[in-house]
Fold this protein.
Amino acid sequence: MAGWLFPLTLAAALVAVYRPFGDHLYRVVTGARHHRIERGVYRLVGVDASTGQTWGVYARSVLAFSAVSVLFLYAFLRLQDRLWLSLGLPAVADHIAWNTAVSFVTNTNWQAYSGESTMGHLVQMAGLTVQNFVSASVGIAVAVVLMRGFAARGEKLLGNFWVDLTRITLRVLLPLSVLFALVFMVGGVVQNLSGGVDVTTLTGGAQHITGGPVASQEVIKELGTNGGGFYNANSAHPFENPTAWTNWLQVFLILLIPFSLPRVFGRMVGQNRQGYAIVAVMAILALGSIALTVGFETHGAGTVPQAVGAAMEGKETRFGVANSAAFAAATTLTSTGAVNSFHDSYTALGGMMPLVNMMLGEVAPGGVGSGLYGMLILAVITVFVAGLMVGRTPEYLGKRIQAREIKLASLYFLVTPLVVLVGTAAAFATGNAATALNAGPHGLSEVLYAFTSAGNNNGSAFAGITVNTRWWDTALGLAMLFGRFLPMILVLALAGSLARQRPAPASDGTLPTHQPLFVGMVAGVTVVLVALTFLPALALGPLAEGLR
Amino acid sequence: MTTTLNDLVDVGPAPEPPTRPVGAGLLDPGQLWRSLPGALRKLDPRVMWRNPVMFIVEVGAVFTTVLSIAGPSVFAWAITVWLWLTVIFANLAEAVAEGRGKAQAAALRNAKQDTIAYLRDGREIPATGLAQGDVVIVGAGQIIPGDGDVIEGIASVDESAITGESAPVIRESGGDRSAVTGGTRVLSDRIVVRITQKPGESFVDRMIALVEGANRQKTPNEIALNILLAALTIIFLLAVVTLQPLAIFSKAYQAAAPDTTAVDGDGVTGIVLVSLLVCLIPTTIGALLSAIGIAGMDRLVQRNVLAMSGRAVEAAGDVDTLLLDKTGTITLGNRQAAEFVPVDGVDRLALADAAQLSSLADETPEGRSIVVLAENEHGLRDREPGRLSDATFVPFTAQTRMSGVDLGSRRIRKGAAAAVTKWARANGGHPAEQVGAIVDMISDSGGTPLVVAENDRVLGVIHLKDVVKPGMRDRFGEMRRMGIRTVMITGDNPRTAAAIAAEAGVDDFLAEATPEDKLAYIRKEQEGGRLVAMTGDGTNDAPALAQADVGVAMNTGTSAAKEAGNMVDLDSDPTKLIEIVEIGKQLLITRGALTTFSIANDIAKYFAIIPAMFATVYPGLDLLNIMRLHSPGSAILSAVIFNAIVIVFLIPLALRGVRYRPSSASVLLRRNLLVYGLGGVITPFLGIKLIDLLIQLIPGI
Amino acid sequence: MRLPAWLAQHLAALRALLVLTVLLGLAYPLLLVGAGRIPGLSGPASGSMTPVGSTLIGQSFTDAGGNPVPKYFQSRPSAAGDGYDPTATGASNLGPEDVVDTPARQSLLTRVCGRSVAVGKLEGVDGRRPYCTGDGVGAVLAVFHRDGFTGPVTRVVSVNQTGTPFLARYQGVTVEPAKEGEDYRALGGVITPIRGDAPDRPVVPADAVTASGSGLDPHISPAYAALQAPRVARERGIDVSRVREMITAYTEGRAVGFLGEPGVDVLDLNLALDGR
């Protein structure tokens, strides 16, 4: 029973911060005043903070920033042996460097490498940690633009990317990171520049205890739903996640921003109840998923878990089965991908849940920003079908959902299945699936998981599979790139399209989008569409393994 | 009171009961058969291409045909046949919808051709040779040669060729029932008609073009829905195509799995893969989408409304504000005499008698209502004007502002208070102070006073009042529940307007409205993001009709009005706007409901096909076979058959439209989600199981 | 001179990235490294070190030959390198149905069974588990049917055993031992784990037979510690109740009463037993 208190206390905490933290976020992205430090940043960057951007200019700014980030990080990784604090590690191989650069810029933080044996401290700090911050800010910024599109009354200008990026980073992410990094350090997360300590163990063995600036990266890894661990073992590593309470705090940080953004949405469109409706859809899906994951794992079906007596393979004693399963659900319901236990060794159906969570499009609550805009896209599609059923041209928040909006929403919805299914099929068709560690349906799951994780920018893995080959690094890099930026462009275009419309007032004939019926329908549409898209593939993976 | 009034005055067709759902078109089973050749002709890929969902089914059917020829089996051929049937059923739906229009068009053409026009000057020319402004005489049994106005006479006319309504209607000169339509038949009497149409542009001509769907364009919502369906189709195409490498891998891994009709060493067999694809893509809605659109227009035509574009029909469903003219729409066409108010010392009967006498020659509705009121309330029989041989009728003129009769020494006048009292004074009388008080009282209550005087004596006042049509209040309540505001437009002063608005139950009114006021009101509403619908008939309504999102011009109206609006109502019934709104909504609801149904169906199909495909590879997957279908072959075939025949079962629904009752969006959504969402989930489970029980008897399945 | 818009945009992006790199990539982490020097934080921030390792990082209590040193409580199995190697952290990543040994590696089931038997032997208790043979490998048959999954059984092989099969006959067919390197699934055998008659709740606890996620799990369950208590007491010549008291003292309960699971920090306990 203690296992169920974990998600329940999390839910309570998230409910408590929903309004105050959401309101803070709202003020950050709508406030007129620029802070002194921010003005300094704008001057250094050379942008005029007072000008607005159309969706097109905004999109080009996002792409320019991301492209520069990929190149910068790639160069950084390739040159690490010539920089300080490399700990004597060599330059990162070209395909791993490409994969990693894309991975961190796309907020995926998929790791085709093992942190402790590949990355020096400077790369971790000035390369990876920086992208942990800014990729999160980019995601939030894009979601904010979509909200502005809904709230607009015919305007064309939808904010300024550089201002949004700077403000979200400096007013939201950085202060929370400093605060919680200190808390993590109290719990035992390390923060030093040590190259490691060689010790002789109690029985005379040798052990190299690693060091590093872990806490500063750990906190933004969770807060920005990034998920790239300082170490290979990620949040299972005692230096990243030493205790059961730091574990709770990590999940809380993962869910904090995604679950608070609907508040910003509600405030932005002037109807808090619209925010409540969106957060309700997220909560229903999240609670359902967590319950199923925890249920499947604690039930412990399967030959090995039955032989063991519990699904303990790949899980830490201090977290136990239930809290590990809850972490697994949270990390895949968002685009985090941090792990405190290894999903590959989960029970068949327990391991299917992270996969399904990602396939949902990571909308419950999803990655920072990306979760909200993904959910709003689903709401748009639902509004369209539901709107027809009430006999009016569908409207969401007074904005008519017509051919252009549906085209953008449909394309958005197409991207992930395209990337995931084509990638998985290609891996099998080209024989590259053979790098899976496990045989049969479980091996298929490993491949499917890899592309699902990359295409949805999650970053967790059925980690048995070997993916640091040239083919895998390239394919997954492309999957991450397409999975991140195509949807973003479509979302920004949708924002532009919505912004041009003057909202129509609601009447009794308008589909109410804040009532339980609509909430249930969005949740239903999400589950049904995803089930229909991915059920055949799931049938040959986790279902084949788990049903007997 | 209501019934009395109804009996008193012919108000045309009885108003529909307010809760009547939008009527159904009938589907004759024979029609399916007759439409078959058309459906087969549509198999041409160049035609199918326009419907991507069904085009994919056709490509799949061709593919399975090739496979069946290469490797014949009962299963393969059965699937192939049913895939072809799926395509044909879809074409059938469209062909039936078009066929109904075609049949109607043919009937209309029949009515039109060979008609002879008898011009008043004695010439006889073919109807097609008529020009605007010609005057023709149409006698009993003859067909009216063109659209026009009755300028003389009264006749009962059979308009069934256009309306399908067999009961004859009355057409007469003057008033709002003067317009006649070419192709309709005069049953009795004789009328003189002035032709108003241009050659080849009659209502019937336009209606023929419309019902044949000659240049049907997709409406905005239809385009959006098509995009969504295309996206879903691509997703399912992806899901099915990418399945193959996974299937090959799985089959190779499970070496113990035997080769079956569904899966062998080369993965899922082509026939099964195509079956899965066809079952998943939204064929149900894809098959019925264009039929729904055609049928929606058809329903409008059946109600004698000519929509210039499908876009206008959809816009009708979106209307937020309805501007309705008071006169003829909210109230009965004209003011009716409601009461005789005598001055002190005058008998009410005497007043009624004088009023009736003065009105005998008054052919205005007001005048006749006075005659009728006197008859009903006071038993004064209508007297034929001709039988009062010594009577001289004095017509109303703008100068005198009164009318009346001279019966020997009895000179009776009725008219505006000032004019009649002045006339009485001029005759030497001294009208009582009381007359002024009565007149004021009537004016205050929103009525119109008509003073009656005989010689030098003012007898009293006739109280003419606007009578709100029965049932209107309920209909406006309905509109409110649908989220539509009703606004009454009237030339009355605000006080009078407020009184009538309150009585009729409209949400707002625009008093002393000039055409500019109407236009300004519409603009104001539209700036607030609302869609506005209005009706109009006068030339001065044209700018407002053009500005409104839905502008319904009365067929009796001027041609300027008809050009400006995007719909024409042949019946010239302003209340029809309400029905038009309902038809627009029903059209959208039908699309949404069948889309939901189509997608919800996929769940059951998965539970049939996935275990059928893969339980032979991974026996554990047989747990997904919750319907306990007989064999993999029967399961797949059942799903394909269900997928095909559900189209046929839904054709009537597509043509008729889903049941629609005016209610709020929440209520509608709840109901439709229950019926078409939940129903869409459950129905195929039952249907597939049932089909499976039957076809498992076929050897070889 | 005016730059083209796209170039200006990318230069702005580069400047923004550099500014943010200085702020977030240098100032922020170094500030926290500085904070990590503050007394009170410096212990945990530098790794919660003891002279023989970190109390947060598990270690093997084995001799040079890899055999358990019996006077010490033993940690869980580890998949990090050769065991508890902080430079190669991670898990086994083997799935729940990984039951057939291959020439390349042992199956997860066999690993579990082998560990259980070994622990049982070390602690002198019953090491049997469901789906395990008595000799500590996965009890798994490849069952060949005439028609794939159906029809009469034609051949049965115990796939993880090259010696005497754990079962003599299966559905009337004699069970054969496996030949080294043969893939019986590829030959058409249906892989069938056999439950056997081992108790549902084996004596050896779950954490004793499974590798952790990090490979550095510093904890064992109180049950596993209790199982080891008699041996440690015997080896150290102290009363077992004293050992049990120490286990209780070094058992970390659930955080805040409901988070995670109770665990015993093995290094702390062993250090305490050594009196250090």
Notes: Chain C touches chain A through 110 residues (CB under 8 Å). The first strand of chain C starts at residue 49 and ends at 50. Residues 26-53 of chain C form one domain.
